Every structure is written in structure tokens, then in C-alpha cells.
Amino acid sequence: MIYMLKNEKGLALITVLFILVLFTVLGLSVLSITMQSSKVRTYANEETDGKMLAEMGMLYFKKKLEKDLSRVTPADLANPSHPLRQAMENPGKGDELLQQYVDKIAANQAEDKNLYKFTPLPGSPNTGFAIGYVDCLDDSRKNALPYKDGKSGTSQPYVRKLKVSVLGVPKGGENAGSFKTLQKQVKLTSTVYINTVPAPFHYAVSTSNELRLFGGTNIIGNVLAPVVVTSTDYRYSEETEDKTQEWKTAGEAWNKPYIEGNLFLSNDTDTATKNGIYQTGTPKAEAPTEESLQGGSPIATRQALRSAGIMTPLTLADDTKTELSAPKPYLPGYEPPFLETVEEDDIPTTLFRKWADQELKVIKYIENIIEANRPSSSDFTVENDESIFFGDGEATGFVKVAPPISTDKIFITSRQAKPETGEPPSLTVRLTGDVLYHQDGKQLFIVPDTPDYKATVEMGDKDAFMDSTANANNPFTFNGSIFIDGDLDIIKDIDMTGTIYVTGDVTIREASNSPRKNSDKENNLAIIAGGKITLTDRYTSDEYNNPVELDKWFLPYKKDEDNIPPFSAFLYSDSNLELYSVKSINLIRGGIANGSSTAKYMELNTKREADSLASRLSIQFSRGIFERATPGLPPGDQFFIDMYDEKYENVKSDITFTSS
Hints:
Layout: H1 2-70, H2 74-78, H3 83-89, H4 96-103, E1 107-108, E2 115-121, E3 124-135, E4 159-169, E5 186-195, E6 205-207, E7 210-214, E8 218-220, E9 223-225, E10 227-231, E11 233-239, E12 245-251, E13 258-260, E14 262-267, E15 276-279, E16 297-299, H5 302-307, E17 338-343, H6 362-373, E18 380-383, E19 387-390, E20 399-400, E21 409-415, E22 427-431, E23 442-448, E24 455-460, E25 476-484, E26 486-491, E27 493-502, E28 506-508, E29 512-513, E30 525-529, E31 533-535, E32 567-573, E33 577-581, E34 586-594, E35 601-606, E36 617-621, H7 624-627, E37 640-650, E38 656-659
Parallel strand pairs: 1-3, 2-38, 6-9, 6-34, 7-10, 7-35, 8-13, 8-36, 9-14, 10-15, 14-17, 18-21, 19-20, 19-22, 21-23, 22-24, 23-25, 24-26, 25-27, 26-28, 27-29, 27-30, 28-31, 30-32, 32-34, 33-35, 34-36
Antiparallel strand pairs: 2-3, 3-4, 4-5, 5-37, 11-12, 15-16
């Protein structure tokens, strides 16, 4: 019995020891898991902090550089002897002066790609962000577009391209000069353009007053306006039997305007009674007036914007992975618009800034350039109501002329006596083919020599003037700038890089601006008008209006493929801008804008097809305005900083910091 008791006591001891060991192992495991979880949570928090600091650093770079460059006044840029102006005119030779502005904020990584300039947060010497940049100029300086003034008609805004990287550095580094905890840092990179491109060409849609989005317009890019009025209905006009126009209205619930980008509401109380977004009912079935549409319900927040069913993003299916951009060109994606209110002075909407309350209009700007380039004798003089023709082949009723070869400028004037009664006869010039093309660019001036006269210019494919159904095989091909004191009619197709200035109205018929000689390149074209711009009769045939084949509208255009090419251009008008696309199909790659005190509104009227993503009016912003030269574009009188291609990365290399 005693033996048994002793034996039991030994077993109990072993049991107790086993339990103690078990609890110790479990305790250590729990402690290890807890510590690991804490480390993961700490790392996640620090990574989030690093991302926020990196975003802060990128914003700091933009605002600081804009502020420093704003000290260079428009008068400085207008002065040919100013050092910065001279530097901008000679990229690769004298633009080190502009680089000094960037070097104050960021480290030049030309020699060391891991070099960054560290900026601490106030009161936190080891927390902040570090900025470095790579100049995207190659040895031949092809990526810098030099500044040229507008007096000769060969103007070009200055553009310089950088690749900027920002490290977000959360608290935890040893000192501001040597951080070892790289896993805590987040790298944000962005393509940055320092430029003097005029303000309206930075947006898909820009207006100085009321923006009316009636129907289901697709806008892929940023939008700037003081006030936006939206409606799922649209209005249009039809010709009656007695040849008069009858206005009608229609619409379905799916006709929702869509913006993929930022919507900037400029705060200018002089142009709108109350800034913001208004959802209105059916627009009046009549020709538009300059009065704002009243009775709309204000939409003040992003949540209200979505709940109202206006500008809502595409809904993701449960089994669809998240995408953050449009699935095809000109189609809505999944990103809702971001609303932001900005001061009007910060983001101008007009082509030229006001000087002492004096506003420079497009018409005056064109007249100034024409007078500065008017020769003592014209290359061609058109007598009476005679019309001339540039291009291949023959044209009935036109006098064919051969273009001069030895000059970069062609000046055409008319000598016509003003009749005692009736309208004065118009000078007509027809432009087709590639006889005026020169790779180094040309300037063409078409100007009546008599006051109150107006030029009428036809431009496009030669076959389209004789047969409206003809395919575009011989478009008007040109590189440079064209100045027209009168009206312009573009028919069927053109292939042009440069700028067209028109004092009067512009009509764009079924036309694109797609290159034919080399389908891989893109054209930069800006059309700047003092009058109205109209897009009409664009792809209205049954071939393009079969809802089953809507997808072909939105494919990237390639030569000889059966799809609808976009009209690749930036359109700007000093007057009201009305684009009606109910029966037509309008795909614009570039942007549209209007400004000046004479522009009271911009109205976009269109419809979707049976609850489809396809809209008959789609506008997609083109970044090519910064990437490629646009001869004749106004050079601008202030600096802008534009950023694209933002990307987050892990820091994997040794980093060297310099102090600010």
C-alpha cells in the first residue's frame, strides 16, 4: 500500500511538470504570434504612413515649383532678353536656368539614381519625404519643346518632361542623412510636364461659364467649369416639310453623363449665380438661349452625385476584378469623378489672361499676327469673286495654282470692290492633297484685303467635294499653322499637325485627323475660332447606326480597319459652343473649350444606345499636347505643372539623402 502511494506521487509530479511545459510552449507560441501580428500591424501602419508622406511630397513638389515659377511674370516671358526666356528658347543649351528651380526641391539623379533630397516635417527631423528626378531629355534634346513667340506665326509653348520619384519616410530612421529601415519607405513616381501650354488645353472639357451636359456624354479626362447643369434628356432639331427647324426633346433613364477624371468647379461669382452641379428635368425643346436653366436641384457632394444617378461609374460584377480605367477608349470605366472647388485665378479658362481688365480676343490675336506677317506683295492675289484651288487634279469653277517652293510662308489676299448693295463676294480657297506639306512646317495666310470681307476656306479630301460618299484617300496634309480671316469648312478628312486660326465660324463634317502616311504616329492639331464650331453629319449612315456593331466605334483607329476614326484635335472657341450629337457620332480625341466674356455656355447634347456604355458624343483627353510639338499653338504666359502615370513601388535599393 505504501508502495502504491509513493508510485502515485511520482506520477502526479510528472503530470504537473508536463502541464507546466505544455503551458509554457503554448504561452510562447501565443506570445510569438502576438508579437508577429504586432510587427505586421506596425509595418502596415508605417507603410500607410509612408504612402501618405510620399503623396504629400509629390503635392509639395508641384505646388512649390508652381509658386517659384510664378515669380517669373508674363512680362518676363514676353521679354526676349530675359534669361529664362532665352533658356526656354534653347533647350539643351541654356535651360540650366530652369533646372535650377527644380534642383531647389529635388535631387538630380543623372549621376546617382538613388540620390534624393530629404525634406523633414516641421518638428520631426527624421520624418518627411525625399524627392529625386530624372530629366527625360536625351542627348539630342528631343523631349524638350522650345518656346517660340507668336509674332511670326510659328509659336510653340515650352514643355519639359521629367520623371519624379518621391519617398515617404515615416518616423524610425537613424538620422536625416542615412535611413536603414527601407522597408518603411514607399516610393511614388510620376511623369511631370513643366509647360506653358495655354490653360484650356489641359482639360477634356473647359468652359468659362455654364456647362450643360444633356443626355449621356462620355468624358474621359478632367473637366473645368464654374457651374454644371445635367439632365438625362437631350434636345435636338429636325427639318420640317416647309424647310424650317423644329426643336424636340427626348431621353431615357440610361442617358447619364459620365466623367472619368476630376471635376473642377471654378469659384467665379461673376459668371454664375451659384457654383456647383445642378440636376434639371427635361430641357426646353427649343433653340438654346444664353440664360441659365433654372429650377434644377443642386448636387453638393460626391455621395449626392452618385445617388442622383448622374455621372455614376460602371458597377463591377461580383466575379470581375477591379479596374481603374476605361476598358476601351471613349467608354466609361470604374472611377467616379472627384469634385474639387478651385479659385478662378488659380485655373484660368480663357486662351489669354486678362490685362488690366482688358481681354485679348482670338480675333484680335489673329489680326495682330496677320499684320505682323503681311508682305509688301502677296504670293497670290484673287480678283473679284475668283476662287483658287490647291491640290491634285482639277476642280470645276476653281483656278488651280502651284504653291511657291522657296518660301515657308504663303500669303493669299483678295482685291474686291465692295458692292453698293448685297453681301460682298467671298474669297474661296480649296485645300486638298499634300502639295503644301513640308516636314519643317509652313505658314499659310488667307486674308481678304478689303475691310468687311470674309474668306471662305474648304479643306479636306478632294474626292469628298464631288462625292459625299467617297472614301478618304487623299486628305489635306499639312504641317504648320494656318490663319484664316473668315470661315472654315472641313469635309471628310485631313492629316494635319499644327494650329488653324479662324476669325469666323468652323464647320466640321464627317472628318477625322488620322495620319495616312504612317499609321503609328499621332497628329497634334488645335483649331482656334473666334466664332462658332459645329460638328455635323458625322457618320449618320445606316452602316454606323447598327446597335449590334457599336463596339467598332471605340476601337483604337488603325489604317484600313472598319471602325470609326476619332477626330483628333483640340477645339477652342471664343463664343458659345454647342455640340449636338443625336443622329451623328462624334468621337473627339483631344479636348473642347470655350472662354472669354462672350462665351456664356457650352452645351453637349447626345444620347446613349439602349442602356449601353456607348455614347454618340465621347471626348477623350489627349496627352499628346505635351508630348509632341504643335506648331502655331499660343506659347502661353505662365507655367503649369501637369502630372501623370502615378505609380507606387517598394524601395529595394540603398538610398542616399541630401538635405534641402
